[in-house]
Design brief:
The protein is an alpha+beta fold and 595 residues long. It is 28% helix and 22% strand. A hairpin with a 4-residue loop joins strand 10 and strand 11.
Length: 595
């Protein structure tokens, strides 16, 4: 059985969550971070102190908590609110506006706790907190999810009859509404990225605000939330694994903050027992992973891994996962903790998601998304890996590149890597010039700079197989590798690929993936990948690939890709026919309109 399908410890109660929380709450007086970020040390310490407060303030709001658990954090806040010792609560400027990000949790604390929180502080401390939080109104904000920080801080101040800016509330609301693109989806600044920030940013904060304030229309929030969930429910599989896609994967179980927001704000329209099961399915999945060191959630995904980090990830950043522990605002007597979780089954479904540019297959063994729209316009670190792959699986995860020099150092899984002859330097799909989402296939147009123009068609078959067709036009001779899914633990010294004609299959400990050349113009090769490159597994892994030389002019490439997490031997000879734009397989006909 694969490591991603193992039996997990069983979290089921509020007490279980509090016990787990204790293992993820660092000493607020002992910052142990030794890695850097794009913002200064003082702000990193503010982040370290502040992000666990999503859980701490939620406990206080519930009235059902151990005073000794929250008191160290309260004492640290009081220390920072002392004018003689202020070291962390610095006034933000436009250049240091990361501070504004960390202010959000204090706005949340004021909203959900009110006097339960303020009673811990003296009048002088409250006055300084009020002054500090109001400084958020003096800086410029990017037009993205950060506008919600401006909103939640001012709403928290308003809720407690403290000084605030109604003008900033109105401005933020209008700008947030302008970022709504329909069907429950928002545009987080740039149009080319629609990832988890839509779920744990826009929707989560909107639901929190709709619960505690009158600034957001509750019915509108619910309507958009319900539309979004009809896509988002497919981003989590039957094992509790979410689709690992895009940036900020170090927030791990923060992905289900969306569902927590539904519960806390009473914005759900599935049965509450079903929403509870979704939340705990994911929390139980993460519970057994080595994601903490010194009671700090680490940067990484399945294990500590700085290769996965963003430039805005400091040591305290991953504690944003604790937004999910807003669930603890519900005291132990709440009906949520008493009901039995009931699994909602959405299987064997092809979900066409136009706004994020996905076709998602929901299977029993994993879910995968074929991706045709998104890319990182701002060049997020490892953006080719985080946004540019053709397929993202909840079960296999994906690989990061260690270098662009040498194909073994490049993350070739679920990618087409191109290289100008003689350079041995590789690049895969980045900026996408055009994407069309059809109900049964995706089309994208992209390029390799001025070297080549590429068109790609991605076609789902079932949870085990999908098809890819590429048309490449170039004036130069290129080398091209195309990879299937990564197979963890596969090592070229101890494992051998299965090669037959134009097919190659790799298998190790129940994880199996293969690729078949459809147009017989490439050769099968096994590419080893470095340790610490797969986001789930730290060991070496291998990728079944097709290699070919692309000559000047037009070249057509085609592949059938297989992936199975339960070690079944694949039938890679599925009958396929492609002629005059008509693709036929398994009694199905698909006309590729753009071909």
């Amino acid at each position: 059985m694969s490591k991603n399908l193992k039996e997990h410890s069983k979290l089921c109660s509020r007490a279980d969550l509090v016990d787990w929380l204790k293992t993820m709450l660092p000493d607020p007086w002992d910052y142990q971070g030794v890695t850097g970020s794009t913002y200064q040390q003082e702000i990193r310490e503010l982040e370290y102190v502040s992000r666990p407060l999503w859980a701490i303030f939620s406990l206080i709001a519930s009235g059902d908590y151990d005073e000794m658990l929250v008191l160290p954090y309260i004492e640290r806040i009081k220390y920072e609110l002392n004018l003689k010792t202020k070291t962390v609560f610095l006034k933000p400027t436009t250049k240091t506006r990361q501070i504004a990000v960390e202010m959000a949790v204090y706005g949340y604390g004021l909203l959900c706790c009110q006097d339960k929180l303020l009673n811990y502080f003296s009048n002088e401390e409250i006055e300084y907190l009020e002054t500090w939080l109001n400084s958020i109104n003096e800086i410029e904000f990017p037009q993205n999810n950060w506008l919600l920080f401006l909103l939640i801080v001012n709403c928290g101040l308003k809720k407690n009859n403290l000084r605030y800016s109604q003008a900033k509330i109105d401005e933020a609301k209008a700008k947030i509404n302008n970022l709504y693109v329909g069907n429950g989806w928002y545009q987080d600044g740039v149009a080319s990225q629609r990832d988890y920030y839509i779920a744990f940013g826009f929707h989560f904060y909107s639901m929190i605000l709709s619960k505690y304030t009158d600034e957001f229309d509750h019915e509108t929030v619910k309507e958009r939330c319900w539309k979004f969930q009809e896509d988002f429910k497919y981003w989590i599989d039957q094992q509790g694994r979410t689709l690992q896609f895009g940036r900020s994967l170090s927030y791990r179980f923060g992905h289900v903050a969306f569902w927590v927001g539904q519960v806390v704000s009473e914005s759900y329209n599935y049965e509450l027992s079903e929403v509870k099961e979704i939340i705990f399915r994911n929390l139980n999945y993460w519970h057994d992973f080595p994601i903490t060191q010194n009671n700090m959630i680490t940067v990484g995904c399945g294990y500590p891994n700085l290769l996965l980090s963003e430039d805005y990830n400091a040591p305290g950043s991953p504690a944003w996962a604790l937004k999910t522990f807003v669930l603890l605002t519900l005291p132990g007597s709440h009906s949520f903790w008493q009901i039995e979780a009931k699994k909602r089954i959405d299987l064997n479904t092809l979900s066409c998601q136009v706004e994020p540019g996905f076709l998602i297959i929901a299977g029993i063994k994993h879910h995968y998304a074929l991706s045709g729209f998104q890319y990182s316009k701002g060049h997020v670190l490892q953006h080719h890996a985080k946004y540019g792959k053709f397929c993202y699986s909840t079960g296999f995860g994906w690989n990061l590149s260690r270098d662009v020099q040498g194909i073994e150092n490049y993350a070739i899984d679920n990618a087409l890597a191109l290289s100008v002859k003689g350079t041995d330097q590789y690049v895969s799909r980045g900026e996408i010039q055009k994407c069309v989402v059809h109900k049964d296939y995706l089309y994208s147009k992209w390029n390799y700079g001025v070297v080549a123009d590429i068109e790609t068609w991605l076609v789902p078959i079932d949870e085990d197989y999908h098809l890819r067709i590429h048309r490449i036009v170039t004036d130069m001779e290129l080398h091209a590798y195309e990879g299937a899914f990564p197979v963890w633990g596969w090592h070229y010294k101890f494992n051998q690929p299965i090669v037959k004609d134009k097919i190659i299959i790799l298998e190790n400990n129940g994880v199996c993936s293969g690729i078949r050349d459809l147009f017989k113009n490439r050769i099968p090769v096994a590419i080893k990948q470095n340790p610490n490159t797969n986001i789930y597994d730290c060991e070496t892994n291998g990728v079944a690939c097709l290699y070919g030389v692309i000559n000047k002019g037009q070249t057509l490439l085609g592949s059938l890709v297989y992936g199975d997490l339960q070690g079944n031997c694949p039938n890679m000879m599925i009958p396929l026919k492609f002629e005059h734009q008509l693709l036929e397989f398994k009694n199905k006909k698909i006309y590729l309109e753009e071909f």
